[in-house]
Design goal:
Helix content is 13%, strand content 31%. The protein has a seven-stranded antiparallel beta sheet with strand order 1-2-11-8-13-6-3, with helices on one face. The protein binds N-(carboxycarbonyl)-S-(naphthalen-2-ylmethyl)-L-cysteine (MD3) and fe (iii) ion. Fe (iii) ion (FE) binds next to loops.
Length: 213
């Protein structure tokens, strides 16, 4: 039965060794998470960052926590301060840290305490090209991702850039935990289709919790 017919179903679906989709795990926290995103964006606005090659990303980003992920002409890096304005990134709300820790534990990764949260905002037409996340100091820690708003198709690749990706729909409230042998898997997000969600309108948000430092 295709899972997209029952987005409210709360199931744990292994995608690969080390990667688990926790369907609907964040549903109860969704409104609190969206209020937290609004507070983060009030202090550190969403912006389309520039790739090292000089193109603007279609996904708008901001960060919370001790470290925030940025890209610019100078490359990819984690910084303690928001390059827009020079202040520290806004604090990671405790409820965010707690949710990420519970999701990681549910997937088998005990005592995950993130120090960075990258907040991605997708408008219709935005996408994320396949990539690896390897700018974090501790690759033994998992990454926890939370999807909110309009559903998207996640592209789950293999260990090599050329491997043909699996297409996994990610709905409002879904949480995915990636660690261990799945930590360096290539992944991306297909172009967001026009949609309408009661809590986010046409937008999709994705939170990725990381141990960056
Ligand atoms: C698999 N974000 O921010 S979350 C990213 O939906 C990113 O915005 C996507 O890829 C999004 O880097 C996908 C899922 C995700 C995040 C990190 C991973 C999958 C991952 C790290 C390793 C393996
Ligand atoms: Fe990624």
């Amino acid at each position: 039965m295709p899972p997209e017919l029952f987005p409210e179903t709360r199931v744990a679906l292994p995608l690969d060794p080390g990667a688990v989709l926790l369907g609907g795990f964040a549903l109860d926290a969704a409104e609190e998470l969206l209020a937290g995103i609004a507070a983060i964006a009030a202090a550190a606005p969403f912006r389309r960052m520039e790739t090292p090659g000089g193109r603007a990303m279609s996904v708008a980003m901001t960060n919370a926590g001790a470290a925030g992920w940025t890209t610019s002409r100078r490359g990819y890096r984690y910084t303690a301060a928001d390059p827009l304005g020079g202040l520290p990134w806004p604090p990671l709300p405790l409820a965010f840290v707690a949710l990420a820790g519970r999701a990681a534990a549910r997937a088998g990764f005990a005592s995950f305490v993130p120090d960075a949260c990258l907040v991605n905002r997708y408008e219709p037409g935005a996408r994320m090209a396949p990539h690896q996340d390897r700018d974090e100091a501790d690759l033994a820690a998992p990454i926890v991702s939370v999807s909110l708003g309009v559903a998207a198709v996640f592209l789950w690749g293999g260990q090599a850039r050329g491997d043909r990706p699996r297409r996994v729909p990610l709905h409002h409230g879904d949480v995915v935990v990636w660690g261990g042998p799945a930590r360096l898997t290539f992944h991306g997000v297909d172009t967001l289709k026009p949609g309408d969600h009661p809590l986010t309108g046409p937008l999709r948000y994705n939170l990725t919790f990381r141990k960056a430092l």
